[in-house]
Design brief:
The protein is α+β, with helices and mostly antiparallel strands and about 325 residues long. It folds into two domains: about 140 residues, Alpha-Beta Plaits; about 110 residues, SH3 type barrels, CATH 2.30.30. The protein is about 40% helix and about 25% strand. The chain is built from eight helices and eleven strands. The strands form three sheets. Strands 1, 2, 3, 4 and 5 form a five-stranded antiparallel β-sheet that branches. It has a three-stranded antiparallel β-sheet with strand order 6-7-8. A three-stranded antiparallel β-sheet has the order 9-10-11, with helices on one face. β4 and β5 form a beta hairpin. The protein is elongated, with a radius of gyration of 39 Å. It starts with a helix and ends in a 9-residue tail after the last helix. About 20% of the residues are buried.
């Protein structure tokens, strides 16, 4: 074998040895290393997911404790009976008529625990149906008290059908209520109430009362408003004496002031010698001495129509004595 052949053979052997070395290095070192890195990444990801789950569980622990304190007792039949009695008491408090409360059968609430095939019972849900007849102010008061208490309940649907002129409503309300297995009460409802800072004050619902979309014609509280007199006080400021729906109640209101009404906003915008201009829930009307608001208000009739039909306003009264003489109240007002 000549030197050249020997050199080529040694070179080929070296290539084979290098290839075999690279193969065995990859099998014995690189692949195990990659597997270990992959396992390490998987373990780190699982640790992060576990930590995130712990944080989420911690965040949910506080509201869950609140839910347990608010939920109905764990006995489903007793819970349903107690809540039905409470709802009927609420209906009686707000004087709803022809009221009935139908309670559905309890539905089991179950969850599947991690690592367990068997589902775990956590509580029951109930569907309640309230049917009654009432007025809008009474319904608003009921809804306010319903939200203020702490029971774990919510209104699923609410149907309102006006009756007659719309002064009364036919109410059909669907309510869902929850009881929980971890509730610490067996035969009583929760005494938890919503924080006043979180609860909606009753005045939030005033716009709904003022703009009764169900009523036809003028509400009774507005229809009975009557201009009884126009006088001038010692400082020369004119005052309107306005009778309201409440018997024997007259309110003395100066220009720019409002009548004391719970369900409507009535502002005396202008006072002349024999008439006043009222802003009634953003609609304006002139009211003459002796007139009731229902005498001058027509459906959807606003200030423009009344202004076109009104004659030139009379001269103002000269002094308070003359004003009082010419504008004697129809009914003797209370001081």
């Amino acid at each position: 074998m000549n030197p050249r052949t020997r050199l080529l053979g040694m070179a080929g052997l070296a290539v084979v040895l290098l290839y075999c070395g690279d193969y065995f290095y990859g099998q014995w070192f690189e692949e195990p290393s990659r597997d270990l890195e992959s396992q390490l990444s998987r373990v780190e990801r699982q640790i992060r997911e576990t930590d995130d789950a712990k944080v989420a569980a911690t965040k949910k622990a506080k509201p869950l404790a609140s839910y347990t304190a608010r939920a109905l007792p764990y006995d489903p039949e007793l819970a349903r009976s107690l809540y039905q009695d409470w709802l009927l008491q609420l209906v009686e408090t707000h004087r709803l008529e022809s009221a009935s409360v139908d309670a559905g059968s309890p539905n089991r609430l179950e969850i599947k625990s991690r690592g367990q095939k068997k589902r775990k019972l956590v509580g029951h849900s109930f569907n309640m149906t309230l049917r009654a007849k009432t007025t809008l102010p009474q319904l608003v008061n009921l809804l306010h008290d319903f939200r203020h208490v702490g029971h774990l309940h919510k209104i699923r649907s609410l149907s309102l059908v006006p009756l007659g002129t719309g002064s009364e409503l036919d109410v059909n309300m669907s309510i869902e209520v929850l009881s929980m297995q971890h509730a610490d009460r067996e035969d009583t409802l929760s005494t938890w109430v919503r924080d006043d800072a979180e609860a909606d004050p009753l005045k939030v619902y005033s716009d709904l009362l003022r703009r009764n979309l169900f009523a036809r014609g003028l509400p009774q509280a507005l229809a009975q408003i009557r201009l009884q007199a126009i006088t001038t006080d010692k400082s020369g400021r004119k005052e309107a004496w306005l009778g309201t729906a409440t018997k024997s109640q007259t309110q003395i209101v100066a220009q720019g002031e409002s009548l004391d009404l719970q369900t409507h906003k009535v502002v005396v915008e202008e006072i002349e010698s024999e008439r006043v201009r009222l802003n009634v829930d953003e609609s304006r009307y002139w009211l003459a001495l002796g007139q009731r608001l229902r005498d001058v208000v027509e459906p959807n009739n606003a200030l423009a129509a009344h202004s076109n039909a009104t004659t030139t306003p009379p001269a103002e009264l000269k002094n308070s004595d003359e004003s009082a003489a010419n504008s004697k109240p129809i009914d003797e007002p209370k001081p």
